[in-house]
Write a structure and sequence with these properties.
The complex is a heterodimer of chains A (about 290) and B (about 280). Chain A is mainly α. Chain A folds into two domains: about 10-55, no CATH class; about 55-280, MetI-like fold (Orthogonal Bundle), CATH 1.10.3720.10. Chain A is about 75% helix and about 0% strand. The longest helix of chain A has about 35 residues, at about 20-55. Chain A is globular, with a radius of gyration of 24 Å. In chain B, helix 6 packs parallel to helix 11, helix 8 (about 140-165) packs across helix 10 (about 180-210) and helix 9 (about 170-175) runs antiparallel to helix 10 (about 180-210). Chain B is globular and about 70 Å long. The mean pLDDT of chain B is about 90. Classes of the chains: A mainly alpha (about 290), B mainly alpha (about 280).
Chain lengths: ~290, ~280
């Protein structure tokens, strides 16, 4: 993010007297404090994941992924992300198109509502679906009579994940589309292009980097969500356990190699997300 | 009177606006309304009783106390980190800048078990703190550590752009006029970044209050002592006490919205200040 020109150091070197010494000491102190803080809170935990996952060697590490329950958890996480991310992307475009291309009343209120899930505790995000569809919930009796499972089953996991990751694509696309303006779209329409053609040939290429940015963030969140999914999943091994929930189960069974092996996969996903994010930013795309 | 919608040559308003509001209502608003309605259907006395049991009060104290402490720690260290990244050039700066977002991208369960392992009595850091009599894992200190980690990017990312906006010529001018570094910091740098610092603080605090995944591993979850409010909600749900869970959730929801409002007010204030100083 910080890529302003750094004129500071040369300037400093030419300044006389106490400032040079003081500036050097301050600089040293700030860098050291930052590094100690980040090392303790961020780098040590990240290194621990690798160390613990490989504590009993590569054989034990890979054995984790042969376990059918672990594989089921990975599969469930992938399925959830595959359903949730495209739907939230379509929503992001719908919200972006209606908000950026048109002027209507209540627009800023709508934007606030879209950001709402970010302000809600993950536990509450899961709970609201339990209150609706759980056994004691509003539709619980009806669902039970008709043999439909939502809570403690895949639909509940998908709903909770969708709620949590709901704003990620939209909040990238809305400001970007607003900022880029409508001139090209209006030109295309006036020249006779249809709405869909305009969208795919004009709008989509314009917003591609912001879109990629939103999708990878949404995906990282969808695959890693713990609190909301934990509330609705029921923790049935091999059936309704996503990867983060499987980590919890393995950890609580003192299967540390297994827990950290699964954790290492999610950590790699997070690293990949940050790398893509950095590359996207390097193309010149900036979050506001 | 302004029409409901300004005319435009572009098509697709009905489709996209319809889909947006429909989806928003179905996924977000209706379920949240269910929570509010379930709480509203409780008798007032029952609601008050449920949200003021000693166990609930104990959980608020930990959730809000540790979140406040963590956000305060981040206020200081977030500023230091942002300053380091903006003002100094050193090897690995770009990599560290990119890694600041790690707590956003890293699933909370992963940071939870990793922090617990590092700060446990035999962990990499815990083993040096244990002889000093400082127990981190399974105490409120551990809760604070976890909440500090997840709140850190909010402060750094809020402050970084603000620090880049500080006018260096103003600083230089002040110094040539005889101002000391601390005076420059207090009178020029701090006023510019203050709205951003407060926004970052509030965002970190709001996120910490609701946090679940990274806390439950390191907290030990002893009722009244190391049990956070979100965990108490989960316990109520597991007991099928939906009304109790809803009431506690409602309390948290109200507080979250109050903080959301605060953030918006702070940001409006920050924009006004920028306009007032001519930028």
């Amino acid at each position: 993010m910080a890529s302003q020109p750094y004129v500071m150091l040369d300037e400093m070197a030419t300044r006389p007297g106490r400032d040079t010494v003081l500036a050097a000491v301050t600089r040293w102190a700030f860098i050291t404090l930052s590094m100690v803080f980040l090392a303790a809170l961020l780098f040590a935990p990240l290194a621990t994941v690798i160390a613990m996952a490989l504590a009993k060697g590569w054989g034990a590490y890979f054995a984790t992924f042969l376990d059918p329950d672990t594989r089921a958890a990975i599969r469930l996480t992938l399925i959830t992300a595959l359903v949730v991310v495209p739907i939230n992307t379509v929503f992001g475009f719908a919200a972006g198109w209606s908000i950026a291309k048109f002027e209507f009343k209540g627009k800023s209120f709508l934007i606030t509502l879209i950001d709402l899930p970010l302000a809600v505790s993950p536990v509450i995000s899961g709970m609201i679906y339990v209150l609706l569809f759980g056994l004691q919930g509003w539709f619980g009796r009806y669902l039970q009579d008709h043999d439909i499972s939502i809570i403690f089953a895949l639909p509940g996991i998908i709903l909770a994940t969708m709620f949590v990751t709901f704003p990620y694509v939209a909040r990238e696309l809305i400001p970007l589309m607003q900022q880029l303006g409508n001139d090209e779209e209006e030109a295309a329409i006036t020249l006779g292009a249809g709405g869909w053609l305009t969208f795919f040939r004009v709008t989509l290429p314009k917003v591609r980097w912001g879109l990629l940015y939103g999708i990878i963030l949404c995906n990282a969140r969808a695959m890693g969500e713990f609190g909301a999914v934990s509330v609705v999943s029921g923790h049935i091994r091999g059936l309704t356990n996503t990867m983060p929930l499987h980590i919890e189960i393995l950890y609580n069974e003192y299967n540390f190699v297994g827990a950290f092996a699964v954790a290492s996969l999610l950590m790699l996903l997070a690293l990949a997300t940050l790398i893509v994010k950095t590359l996207v930013e390097r193309t010149g795309y900036r979050r506001r | 009177m302004k029409p409901l919608r300004q005319p435009s040559v572009l098509p697709g308003f009905g489709l996209t606006f319809g889909f947006t509001t429909l989806f928003l209502s179905g996924i977000v608003l209706l379920p949240l309304a269910a929570l509010v309605l379930m709480t509203a259907s409780m008798p007032w006395s029952e609601f008050l009783h449920v949200i003021s049991t000693p166990r609930a009060i104990g959980s608020y104290r930990l959730s809000f106390g540790a979140s406040l402490l963590a956000a305060s720690i981040n206020l200081v260290f977030g500023f230091i980190i942002a300053w380091t990244l903006v003002r100094y050039e050193f090897p690995g700066r770009k990599v560290i800048d990119a890694l600041i977002d790690m707590p956003f991208a890293l699933p909370t369960a992963v940071s939870g078990i990793a922090l617990t392992t590092v700060f446990a009595a035999n962990g990499w850091i815990g083993r040096y703190l244990e002889p000093l009599g400082i127990k981190v894992a399974y105490t409120w200190i551990g809760v604070t550590v976890a909440l500090t980690l997840i709140g850190m990017p909010f402060v750094v990312r809020s402050v970084q752009p603000a620090l880049q906006e500080v006018q260096r010529d103003l600083e230089d001018a002040a110094e040539t006029l005889g101002a000391g570094r601390f005076y420059v910091f207090r009178r020029i740098i701090l006023p510019t970044v203050l709205p951003a610092l407060l926004t970052g603080f509030t965002l970190a605090f709001a996120r910490a209050v609701g946090e679940y995944g990274s806390v439950i591993f390191i907290s030990g979850n002893i009722p009244m002592r190391t049990e956070i409010t979100p965990l108490l909600i989960v316990i109520r749900l597991e007991e099928f006490d939906y009304r109790g869970a809803a009431a506690l959730g409602f309390v948290m929801l109200v507080i979250s919205f109050a903080m959301l409002l605060t953030i918006n007010l702070l940001q409006a204030w920050g924009r006004r200040r920028l306009v007032a100083t001519g930028r």
